[in-house]
Write a structure and sequence with these properties.
With about 450 residues, this protein is of the alpha/beta class. The chain has 22 helices and eight strands. An eight-stranded mixed sheet has the order 3-2-4-1-5-6-7-8, with helices on both faces. Helix 1 packs antiparallel against helix 5. The radius of gyration is 25 Å and the shape is flat. The two termini are about 15 Å apart.
Length: about 450
């Protein structure tokens, strides 16, 4: 889960308060001291932490809490609101030009993930009905242009390039001209980075800015670098004047220092976050939803949006009909598994469910993507007859399926058992005897 270390400590601290019927100033002071330590250990900027705790304390020791019927919940509410405000308060969207095309200039250090982010951003806009064009403006890094072209081919998004011998400003001007004639309403520019901030890089970026007047300059930073990401954001903003930040590799960031500090330190909002290696692992940044995730309250809105993007509506309607007739085959099982995986890493999906944000619960679930690989391999090793009627799978067939899928007979038996339990659950659900799907569900991991 994103920010797992920080989330676990904050949730444990605030949970201690919920065990108390009434709160006094000392209870609140003790809890806030632990919140402060958790934030500092998460590499959040010291001044940011100091100001945040001061604001929470001012509200938490007043009548707002002490006269509440549920003081502990009121403290959690205050912490949630202040964390949300710290990260920007509300979503900051891309400024779309009234006269197409909108030019989005991506900047950042080498290794921050600019090129991949350009691809992810183009895919997101394409889903929204836009017609993006990628422009290869990094003429220095070996294979940067080729990488962008490969991404463009995979996404079916055109890439404009003039090779690595032309001036970046000329490339971008030509790219904008191409976008206008070809009807592209979004132009995403991948610029060159360096291993560190230097005057030569900044001068080139300033020249590009002055000559092309981009609608958005978005800084791409690696969230796992913590306070370094915040320092880089500050320097780029002072030299270039950025409009916002894109945090990459947030799925590997157990601390969260960059996400919690960047807006307060630079005044620039986080606009998007990268949450994994896949091109779908990219989403707009919602401060309120992220605060909910950190405090274990779930993120139902993001979960619904992911489901709507990933689930095939025609297949879902067909499956619903089949389930009502108690028809459920291994092909259906496989379809559901693939759509679940399309939604993103399973630990992130589980962390979006209210009540499942608690890190200890997620650890107990032992979400293992490899087990899903094994399930897919087992089902793909079955014949059509076996998928439709698993009752025909005898001992010799189980052995053949295990050998064909590179798994064990025990794993095949376990999957068959899960399948039968799922069918029983569907039958019970259709008969009206079910206590709810989640109460009966045997998750395949």
């Amino acid at each position: 889960m994103i920010f797992s270390g920080l989330a676990e400590k904050l949730q444990d601290t605030l949970k201690k308060l919920s065990g108390k019927g009434k709160l006094n100033d000392k209870d609140v002071e003790t809890a806030l001291r632990e919140v402060k330590l958790a934030l500092l250990e998460a590499d959040v900027n010291y001044k940011v932490v100091k100001n945040l705790i001061s604001r929470i304390k001012k509200r938490a020791v007043g009548q707002e809490v002490m006269e509440s019927l549920t003081p502990a919940q009121q403290v959690v509410k205050i912490v949630n609101e202040e964390l949300t405000n710290l990260m920007g308060g509300e979503q900051s969207e891309v400024d779309i030009s009234s006269e197409p095309p909108t030019l989005i200039m991506l900047v950042g250090l080498q290794g921050s993930g600019k090129t991949t982010t350009a691809g992810k951003l183009s895919k997101m806009f394409k889903k929204q009905g836009k017609n993006p064009l990628l422009v290869a403006g990094d003429i220095y890094r070996p294979a940067a242009i080729k990488q962008l072209q490969i991404l463009g081919d995979r996404l079916e998004v055109p890439v404009f390039s003039m090779g690595d011998k032309q001036n970046p400003v000329d490339i971008i001007k030509a790219g904008l001209s191409k976008a206008k004639t070809a009807g592209h309403d979004i132009v995403i520019l991948d610029t060159a980075g360096r291993l560190h901030i230097d005057e030569e890089m900044m001068e080139e970026l300033k020249e590009i800015k002055n000559e092309t007047d981009p609608d958005e300059i978005l800084l791409v930073v690696d969230s796992m670098t913590g306070q370094d990401a915040v320092n880089v954001s500050e320097k780029f903003d002072k030299s270039l004047g950025i409009n916002g930040v894109i945090l990459t590799k947030l799925d590997g960031d157990a601390r969260g220092g960059a996400a919690l500090s960047v807006k307060a330190v630079t005044g620039k909002p986080i606009k998007f976050i990268g949450t994994g290696e896949k091109l779908d692992n990219f989403e707009p940044f919602h401060p309120d939803r992220m605060s909910n995730r950190i405090l274990g309250m779930g993120d139902v809105l993001s979960l619904i949006e992911k489901a709507e993007e990933s689930i095939d509506k025609e297949k879902a309607a067909e499956l619903e009909k089949r389930l009502k007739n108690n028809q459920f085959t291994f092909d259906d099982f496989l379809d559901q598994l693939e759509q679940l995986r399309d939604m993103g890493p399973l630990d992130q999906i589980m962390g979006m469910l209210p009540g499942m944000g608690n890190m200890k619960q997620l650890k107990n679930l032992q979400v293992d993507e490899k087990q899903l690989d094994h399930i897919e391999a087992i089902i793909n090793s079955m014949t059509k007859e076996e998928r439709n009627d698993p009752d025909v799978i005898n001992g010799s067939r189980r052995k053949r399926i295990a050998t064909g899928s590179g798994t064990s007979i025990q794993e095949v038996n376990r999957l068959l058992k899960q399948y039968r339990q799922t069918k029983k659950m569907i039958k019970k659900f259709n008969s009206g005897k079910s206590k709810g799907l989640m109460g009966n569900m045997n998750l395949p991991f």
